[in-house]
Amino acid sequence: MPKAINVISAQNLDLTFQTNDGPVHALKGVSLDIEKGDFVSFIGPSGCGKTTFLRCMADLEAPTGGSITVNGVSPEEARKARAYGYVFQAAGLYPWRTIGRNISLPLEIMGYSKGDIAERVTRTLELVELSGFEKKFPWQLSGGMQQRASIARALAFDADILLMDEPFGALDEIVRDHLNEQLLQLWARTEKTIAFVTHSIPEAVYLSTRIVVMSPRPGRITDVIESTLPRERPLDIRESPEFLEIAHRVRDGLRAGHAYD
User: Fold this and answer.
1) Band of pLDDT at residue 23, cut at 50, 70 and 90
2) DSSP run (H or E) holding 223
3) Which residues form the domain of 39?
4) Which residue, 128, 158, 188, sits at the end of a domain?
């Protein structure tokens, strides 16, 4: 078998925020490798450092100890090389821009030609099943459609890595289920490496090749669970014994993390 390629590698990563009330230890001794093509979910209680870890990958936070690389270089170099797309909790679309022009914004900033921009917008709208909506404004779309447009914007410049911070957390369960299915299909088609933050055990188990369970602050990894589910995953796989067994292990990991308190 060919050797796995580590796209993201963290070694003994620490991050302490200095505040007026004293230091806040957000991450402590976090070590993790994410391989090319992985779909890795991060789950843990609020404030456990899931988003902080993602933001370290994206060069939005600077670690205070340990090391982290993205594609073998520093997160800053990876950011400048446009190695990743980032999807935030809120869609963050500009209301005065159409959906097509929201998706084109990073491409305009990067200096792509008009023809290239038009082709990429069309292609990414097809990927997220929003063809025909490019001239609509964000307020004319449902919350789920807005979040799909946000994903399209992150995909527009063809980064190999997709960092997703609870993108479906604010959506109702029916919409969330549908977008989970769509995201798996998108991942299968594009073969991106995805790091995904969630509070939902079923979502983490359904989507991931690996689930990283984190403890309350200071954020530590208490378990890394390799999924034994097949890559093709209909929604009803969530009722299978195998799925429930993985979910049970995630739940046990979350309980074990609380034992640090």
Assistant:
1) confident
2) strand 221-226
3) 6-83+160-258
4) 158
Q: 176: which residues sit within 8 A by CB, 6+ positions away?
A: 168, 200, 203
d(CA 168, CA 90): 9
Question: Is residue 171's pLDDT more than 60?
Answer: yes
The CATH number for 43's domain is 3.40.50.300
Whether the link from the prior residue into 218 is cis, omega within 30° of 0, is yes
Q: Give the predicted TM-score (pTM) of the model.
A: 0.90
260 — pLDDT class (breaks 50, 70, 90): very low
What pLDDT is recorded for position 261? 46
> Is 1 within a domain?
no
Q: In what order do the strands lie in the sheet with 6-19?
A: 22-35, 6-19, 65-70
For the chain, the farthest-separated pair of C-alpha atoms sits apart, in whole angstroms, at: 56
Q: How many domains does the chain have?
A: 2
Q: Which two tokens stand for residue 111?
A: 């200096």
* Residue showing tokens 């230890």: 25
Place of tokens 């450092």: 49
What SS3 class is residue 9? Answer: strand
Residue 205 Cα to chain centre, angstroms: 14
